[in-house]
Structure formats: C-alpha cells, structure tokens
Design brief:
It contains eight helices and no strands. The protein is mainly alpha-helical. The chain has two domains: about 5-50, no CATH class; about 75-140, no CATH class.
Length: about 140
C-alpha cells in the first residue's frame, strides 16, 4: 500500500471531524460537504501531495473554496434578478406579454447580451439599460 492510500483516509477523517465541529453538521452532511468540493479531488490526487498539510490548513483551503463557491452563487442570483428586471421593464415599456418578451429575448440572444454586459449594465439606470436593449434589438432584427 502506498503512503498516499494510507494517509488519505486519516486526513479525510480529520477533516470530517473538523467540519462536523465547526459547521455543526452531522457526520453524513460533513462527508457530503467535503466530497462535493473540488478541493477533495485535489486532496485525493497523489501527485499534489496535499495530504502532507495539517488538518487545520486543509480545512482553511476547503473553506476558501466554499467561500468562492458561495460568492459565485450569490452573483448568479444577482444576475437572475437583473435579467428579470430587464425583462419586466422591457415588457412594461413595450406593453407586451411576458412570454412575448421571453421569446423575443431568446430568439435574438438578448439574455446572452445582458449576461455578457452584466458588470457594466447592472450599475446603470433603467432608461439606459432599456436603450441598450433596444439598440441591441435594432441591430439584430435588421440582420
């Protein structure tokens, strides 16, 4: 048996115990918390040799990943709200049904345009955003 195969279960046990204690989770939830991470894949990679690190340092690395993951999920939620905001305001402006706007936005890739320009657009006012959508639509309807 290689040293990696011998040490890995010990490190996983140590991490699961830390997760259980620090996150106040039961054992099965703690195992799921660890195994659902990309961190676990790095930990179990024999070439990476992460298992040389102390349990507390491994836990810190796992939490860094989880924090980044939570931030990405929060950003996704904000992007969804932005898409809904744009769709609803365009619907009201054009006095259209929601499904009509949705179909139009899908056919002409407006959702992609909004997502690609989210960082800039979400900081702008409603009128500016609607003008940008209309400009995008005019350019893509003419093609």
């Amino acid at each position: 048996m290689s040293i990696e195969k011998a040490i890995l279960p010990i490190k996983i046990k140590e991490l699961v115990q830390m997760i259980t204690e620090k996150k106040n989770l039961d054992i099965t939830d703690s195992i799921g918390y660890l195994y659902s991470s990309t961190f676990y894949k790095r930990l179990s990679n024999p070439k990476a040799k992460w298992w040389y690190m102390s349990g507390s340092n491994l836990y810190k690395e796992l939490e860094k990943e989880k924090k980044i993951q939570q931030q990405k999920e929060k950003n996704k939620s904000n992007e969804v709200l932005f898409i809904i905001f744009c769709t609803e305001n365009y619907r009201k402006l054009k006095q259209m049904e929601g499904m009509e706007v949705h179909t139009l936005f899908l056919e002409l890739n407006v959702y992609d345009f909004l997502m690609q320009n989210y960082e800039i657009l979400h900081t702008q006012g409603e009128n500016y955003i609607l003008e940008e959508i209309e400009g995008y639509l005019k350019n893509h309807i003419q093609k």
